[in-house]
Amino acid sequence: MKSEEADNIEELNNLPVDSIRIAPYLSELKEKAELLINYHKLRQECPEITADLRPSSVIGLLQNNYHGVLRSRDDAGSRVLIYRVGQWNPKEFTAYEVFRVSLITSELIVQEWETQRNGLKAIFDLQDWCFAHALQINPSLAKKISSVLTDSFPLKVRGIHLINEPIFFRPVFAMIRPFLPDKIKQRIHMHGSSYAQSLCDYFPKAILPPEYGGTGPIIDEVCQDWTEYIMQSEDYLQRLSLDLGGGDASQSSACE
């Protein structure tokens, strides 16, 4: 083994300077190629989430103020996304459709150079989480959520913050956790119901809605503004669905 390492070092030393300089870029290119392959694999394996990226396909969730993106970035330049699980009616929308909302937003913010560089952070408000929500989460979906968080989408997840998490959310989190790499696990923060101060330890008060201990715009305005922005991107997202081989999600087979 030591001989092999020595040979590798000698080979590296013999490389022209230009080759040494380009090596990190080749490594980055390989990583991005693998990411692209995984992304297309995800789209093929789970059309229920990815085949129809039109916001109108989940308009009920959006109009119910389920999701918004804060107007300002945090101090690290990260986008801050908020999901209000209590605004999701599991009788009307499946977990796959709920997850599609995240993918729609991701497809839009990934175009932003600053977001590509500084990533995103997400706040999940689990107020009113109930058993009907929990029953929608299965190991297959948990694995796909993990895949998007780690190796199937070109966005860096810098932090995940859970608030108002009830005791019976823990089994669902325990289902997802094994699929997550250590670096993501270390970025998950559980704040409980006393989150107003602790969230401000991670985010500037000026950008957080008052419902979450901040002085920014109220959460309903944040969600409505983002819904309007998403709906303006309907044509682009429809073209993206078609360009990537998508179709009518209602005609697609369920994820396995």
Automatic annotation (TrEMBL):
GO cellular component: late endosome; membrane
UniProt superkingdom: Eukaryota
SUPFAM superfamilies: CRAL/TRIO domain (SSF52087)
Source species: Carassius auratus
Name of the protein: Alpha-tocopherol transfer protein-like isoform X2
Pfam families on file: CRAL_TRIO
Lineage of the organism: Eukaryota, Metazoa, Chordata, Craniata, Vertebrata
A GO MF label: phosphatidylinositol bisphosphate binding
Designated gene of the protein: LOC113117438
Domain CRAL-TRIO: start-end pairs: 58-220
